[in-house]
Structure formats: C-alpha cells, structure tokens
Design a protein that fits this description.
single chain, TIM Barrel
Length: about 210
C-alpha cells in the first residue's frame, strides 16, 4: 500500500501502523529532498515504521544526499529498498525548462537514474517512457517503479507522461503506482480488479 504525503500529513505514522496491522507491506512515498543530514535523519526515522518495503527520495537532492540516505537505510537483508525519484510524471519539456532542467525528460530521467545507482540506491521512479532506457543503463537488478499509470479510459488529470498498466508491464517496470484511477472511480473495487486483470494479462504475455 502506498502512503504518500497527503495521507501522511493528515494521519502521520498511525496511517502506516494501521495499514501494516492489516497485513499490508508499505510503500512510503514521501520523496525526501533536503540537505544530506536531514534526509538521512528522515530515513532513519522512517526505518522505525512497521512493514516498510519501499521508500523514495528525490535524485535532484544530489549524490551526497542520496549516499547519506542510503547509508541511513542500513545493511540488513530485509531493509526497505530506497528508490530515487527522477523526473515527476507531471513535468513535460516546457515545464522542465521553466525550473532550470536542460534536455528532454527522457534524457534527464536516465541521467538521474544512473546517479541514483552510483549513490547505491536500489532503484528509480520514472515514467513509462524511460523504463527501457533506464534498464539498459542501470541493469536488470535495478528496481524501476513507474508512476502516471492510467488505464486507457481514465482521465489524464495533472499528468503529462503517462501510459496504461499493460504498457508499463511490457516496458519492463517492476512496480506500478495506480492512484486516482482507483480512488476517484465510482466503484474503486471494480476499478482495481480491472486494472489487476490487465496487469496479469500483460505479465503473462511478457513471460511467454
């Protein structure tokens, strides 16, 4: 279960504890982005939460910040995996230029993923469109989590670089984040089941 900044701000660690008590593993998506000491301290604090499986930090915080965060995550075999957010899926080339990024989203995402690997992170967060290039650059063991996943019938909302669940699986993503297509659906359970069915079909096709 993903716990993002909205839920964590509203309910705090209790949200994680309640979900963990129901048996869910936790993806803590707080995208830490600060000076190295503060980011590392935040990761250490998060390590106290139950059933933590994945965590995110921003790669744009720099190599030193990512290395500090990775060190804070420890060396235990069952430690949470630390993923570096590359380029937010809401950003297109025009918006990137406004905030000082040069080049296309695809180029920047791959370069930031490579920096995350250099820092010792376990993987990266990117859009569907960068999965293949990141896999080529960072290798088969590098975790790739894809945001901006939208079934073909779902609204785009504020996302720019999106794709369907099947496209994400076919591209080689390890994890898919699906939020509003489920939470904003008239029947969230049916929406979730339909997406799960699409993912299963795509996985079967990829493995055949």
């Amino acid at each position: 279960m993903k716990v993002g900044s909205q839920l964590f701000t509203a309910e705090g660690p209790q949200a994680v504890e309640r979900l963990a008590a129901l048996g869910h593993s936790i993806f803590l998506d707080l995208k830490y982005h600060d000076i190295p000491n503060t980011a590392a301290s935040a990761v250490r604090a998060a390590m106290e939460l139950p059933k933590l499986r994945l965590m995110t930090i921003h790669t744009s915080g720099g190599l030193a910040m990512m290395r500090a965060a990775r060190e804070a995550a420890g060396t235990k075999r069952n430690r949470p995996r630390l993923l570096g957010v590359t380029i937010l899926t809401s950003l297109d080339a025009e918006e990137m230029s406004r905030v000082g990024y040069e080049g296309s989203p695809a180029i920047r995402a791959v370069e930031l993923a490579k920096l995350a690997k250099q820092a010792g992170l376990d993987g990266a967060v990117a859009s569907i469109h960068e999965v293949h290039a990141i896999r080529e650059a960072c290798g088969p063991e590098f975790i790739i989590l894809v945001g901006g996943v939208r079934p073909a019938s779902a609204a785009v909302n504020d996302q720019s670089r999106i794709g369907t669940p099947a496209e994400a699986v076919e591209a080689g993503a390890d994890y898919l984040v699906v939020g509003r297509p489920i939470t904003a659906a008239a029947d969230p359970r049916s929406a979730a089941l339909a997406i799960t069915k699409e993912i299963r079909r795509a996985v079967a096709k990829r493995m055949s």
